[in-house]
Amino acid sequence: MTTFLLVHGGFCGGWVWTDTAAALRALDDDVHVLDLPSSGKAAAGLGDLEDDSAVVRQALADLDEVVLVGHSGGGMVLAEFAEHPKVRHSVYLAALSPQKGQSAADLLGRQMPDWIVVRDDGSVQVSDDVEIARQALCADVEADRFAREVHPGYLLTSMRALTAVSSGPVRTHAATYVVCEQDQAIPVVAQEAMGAVLDRVERLPSSHSPMLSMPGRLADVLHEVGSPA
Predict the structure, then answer these.
(1) pLDDT digit string (tens) for 120-174?
(2) Cα–Cα distance between 83 and 126 in angstroms, integer?
(3) What is the spatial distance between Cα 56 and Cα 192, in angstroms, rounded to a whole number?
(4) Which of 91, 85, 35 minimizes the C-alpha distance to 219?
(5) β-pair partners for 92
(6) What is the CATH number of the domain that holds 108?
(7) What is the pLDDT of residues 75-124, one digit of tens each?
(8) pTM for the whole thing?
(9) Rounded distance, CA 188 to CA 201, Å?
(10) 11 by DSSP, 3-state: which?
(11) Is the pLDDT of residue 228 over 90?
């Protein structure tokens, strides 16, 4: 049995992992899901990378050896645990994989795409245009389902989380990058470049959010990657 700790990306909460977590548990894995303080319903009090890292650190304190999985902006958090003794393996799922001193904004080219809206309260949000958001994040999720189940679940994310820089600890464990081949949010060429410096690359024929479009297939990949050799 492998213990997984699942870290969501920006604009999301732990809810995005529901189906993938269930599929992993059906494979007899132990799964823990977090809600990060950088995302929430209200801009006031949203955290940054340091706050997100504190939540992960607390979760690790209560667990034994884990496979740490991060999606999208959650990769910024994973990088902070590159040398943590309880992390056996890191999995970057269409995730930002920074070098020391880089921020999420740096990796996004310092230019917000049209599906991200900058607000006046220090936060950013997913576009209210449902189809623009779907094409960027979940193009392989049926439109009616996306509008009904997915888009309403998106949260605000702190601008401070996007501009916080990675401390860049030296990685002491193996890491895998899962490239999402139909991704419109993080270019596939950028994912491949980030994955090239890790130990292993897997691929899924999905948009940016395979935990929503193909959770069973994602769970199979994670289970295989996380299984002891």
Answers:
(1) 999 999 999 999 999 999 999 999 999 999 999 999 999 999 999 999 899 999 9
(2) 32
(3) 26
(4) 91
(5) 70, 177
(6) 3.40.50.1820
(7) 999 999 999 999 999 999 999 999 999 999 898 877 889 999 999 999 99
(8) 0.97
(9) 13
(10) coil
(11) no
The pLDDT tens digits for 21-42 are 999 999 999 999 999 999 999 9
Tally of domains within the chain: 1
Give the 3-state secondary structure of residue 74.
Answer: helix
Range list of β-strands (E), the chain:
3-7, 30-33, 39-40, 66-71, 87-93, 116-118, 123-126, 156-158, 174-180, 200-204
The two three-digit tokens of residue 22, written as one number: 């269930």
- Could you give the CA distance from residue 144 to residue 211 in angstroms, rounded to a whole number? 17
Confidence class for position 229, pLDDT limits 50, 70, 90: low
Q: Which candidate, 223, 224, 190, places its Cα nearest to that of 208?
A: 190
* Domain span including residue 165: 3-226
For residue 1, give both structure tokens. Answer: 């049995």
Residue 207's CB is within 10 A of a number of other CB atoms, namely 24
Q: Which two tokens stand for residue 130?
A: 């449902």
CA-CA distance, 183 to 166, in Å (whole number)?
Answer: 24
Total residues found in the chain within this entry: 229
* 63 closest CA partner among 29, 87, 36, 94: 87
Q: Which two tokens stand for residue 83?
A: 């040398």
User: Could you tell me how many helices (H) and strands (E) the chain has, helices first?
Assistant: 10, 10
